Automatic annotation (TrEMBL):
Annotated keywords: Coiled coil, Membrane, Transmembrane, Transmembrane helix
Record organism: Leucobacter triazinivorans
Coiled coil: 219-246, 281-325
Entry's transmembrane regions: 12-30
Name under which the protein is recorded: Uncharacterized protein
Length: 339
């Protein structure tokens, strides 16, 4: 190879190396967050509880990388409140998780009656992390489509509208952020474009929503049963009070008629009217028997009312127990084992 050819090869190689270096720089800029997440996730040592929740979430490689990159904590102690102290607590109910400073913090709920609530909360916060990783233009475009989908669905799904009402005070962008997390974890029937969007993070979003439906149903059933009991009790109470008033009037009338009959008998008015005596006494006996049956019926309904009240009290206690499980303000100061 001649000197001129050698110089030409070196020149071409130099350009190729420069182009390759430029390509690496462009790739690094374009995938900067992904690279950062990769190393952050690799440097995080998840404890047993986090590993358990991670397995249950059935995340894609991207979802798992983002989740672990946020160095998630699952804490059943009062320390959770410190971790999420800077989060907007205007939402109704209890705070079970937060995404703040690119960290996910979850409150550990271990009651078997509401299994899945930690996993669904983790997914909700993961979607906040995913939202934060989108470009502003992508977020704005997605936010418009999400709000349009919400308005379309909310007319036929008042429960969804009520669910999102707690975020009405937020800006449009913040509302879209919350809607993004709610639709992704709590609503099963979504359009294909949105399912494809969530498939970035979840291998089986349907299983995740099923978990939400399962524990959400516990609270819904408690409320529905309590509402039904209260309605039945109100109807029964009104009926018993009406019948008790009628019974009291009937007893008073019976006592007056019985007293008059006794007085007439003492005055010997029936001495020569034995058939009249037997007729009136028979009528009074029938009325007495009817009053006794009415009283028994009233007592039976009162007993039933007390049974309904006992059941309502039991439901209230169950609801209070579950509420305490979700109330991080009541958590112990120290962390639970493996939290």
């Amino acid at each position: 190879m001649g000197e001129r050819s050698a110089r030409r090869v070196k020149h071409i190689l130099g350009w190729l190396m420069l182009a390759a270096a430029a390509g690496v720089v462009v790739f690094g800029v374009a995938h900067r967050q992904e690279i950062r997440d990769h190393f952050s996730a690799r440097g995080f040592e998840a404890n047993g509880r986090v590993e358990q929740v991670l397995d249950e979430l059935q995340l894609t490689a991207t979802g798992e990388r983002v989740f672990l990159a946020t160095h998630p904590t699952i804490d059943g102690s009062g320390h959770f409140n410190e971790q999420c102290a800077g989060v907007d607590h205007s939402e109704q109910g209890h705070v079970l998780g937060c995404y703040t400073s690119d960290r996910i913090h979850l409150f550990d709920v271990t009651d078997e009656r509401i299994q899945g609530i930690v996993e669904v909360t983790a997914a909700h916060e993961l979607l906040h992390a995913g939202w934060a990783r989108m470009g502003e233009g992508d977020r704005n475009a997605l936010g418009e489509r999400l709000r349009a989908e919400f308005e379309r669905r909310a007319d036929e799904d008042p429960e969804l509208r009520e669910r999102m009402a707690v975020y009405e005070h937020l800006s449009d962008a913040a509302f879209a952020n919350e809607l993004h997390s709610v639709l992704g974890t709590e609503v099963s029937d979504l359009p294909s474009w949105l399912e494809e969007h969530y498939a970035q993070w979840f291998d089986d979003r349907g299983a995740l929503v099923a978990r939400f439906d399962e524990y959400h149903a516990v609270f819904v059933q408690l409320q529905d049963e309590a509402d039904a009991l209260q309605s039945e009790m109100a109807t029964l109470r009104d009926d018993v009070e009406r019948r008790k008033t009628e019974y009291d009037l009937a007893v008073s009338a019976f006592n007056d008629d019985a007293a008059e009959f006794s007085a007439r008998n003492n005055r010997l008015e029936f001495a020569e009217l034995p058939f009249e005596f037997e007729r009136i006494r028979g009528e009074l006996e029938l009325r007495r028997a009817e009053l006794e049956r009415t009283l028994e019926s009233l007592q039976s309904d009162i007993d039933h009312y007390n049974e309904l009240r006992s059941r309502l009290t039991a439901l209230s206690e169950i609801s209070a127990e579950l509420d305490q499980q979700l109330d991080s303000d009541l958590a112990p100061v120290t962390t639970r084992p493996d939290a």
